[in-house]
């Protein structure tokens, strides 16, 4: 039980922070909970299905191959995981009437991302223990949050733009880029010191995420009401 609490604590800490930044027009809690659950169950299920096929189509035959690890990071993992989150935001959250300001893209994308991260974190922590729980609380979980924020920033803009398709895909692409970069540097840990690249990409993602949140707060249709 303590391991599970350690696994979910950083997830809900991030959720509370992002929810608190929705200053002008809070989202219905029911939609937020559903988004989280869809991320925790549906998104994870989609990823397992995609992994089943990509594991056969794009097998990792040489763990010391930088090129193979690049494909694993960006195509097998990042593309599959971010796409599974993206389709939930796009087809469930974005069409809702409650999705009525740019910041809503961020909060719904983060809800889905944190649902996914919650399930993933529980699985890793139960398998590997307390040290993994503590490490992931400051790395993988915040990373998933930044991927969600960056995706949601553009999906929030897309809802109120004539270039919806382009902006939605920009959000998906940016999430894949940061996710793939983060994982790639971890996957090629056999190169001494290279893992620092993952932490640098995480820091950049956090900085951009804070700017994205601030930008959509300023763009809120409800700010002057």
Sheet-strand content, in percent, reads: under 5%
Q: How large is the radius of gyration?
A: 17 Å
The chain-level structural class is: mainly alpha
Low-confidence stretches: none
Mean pLDDT, to the nearest integer, reads 95
User: How many β-strands, per DSSP?
Assistant: 0
Summed up, the helix count is 8
Q: Helix coverage percent of residues?
A: over 70%
Helix-strand string: HHHHHHHH
Major β-sheet, in short? none
Shape: globular
Distance between the termini: 45 Å
Task: Describe what this molecule looks like in 3D.
By secondary structure, the protein is mainly alpha-helical. The protein has helices at about 1-20, 30-55, 65-95, 105-130, 130-135, 140-160, 165-185, 195-220. The model has no long low-confidence stretch (mean pLDDT about 95).
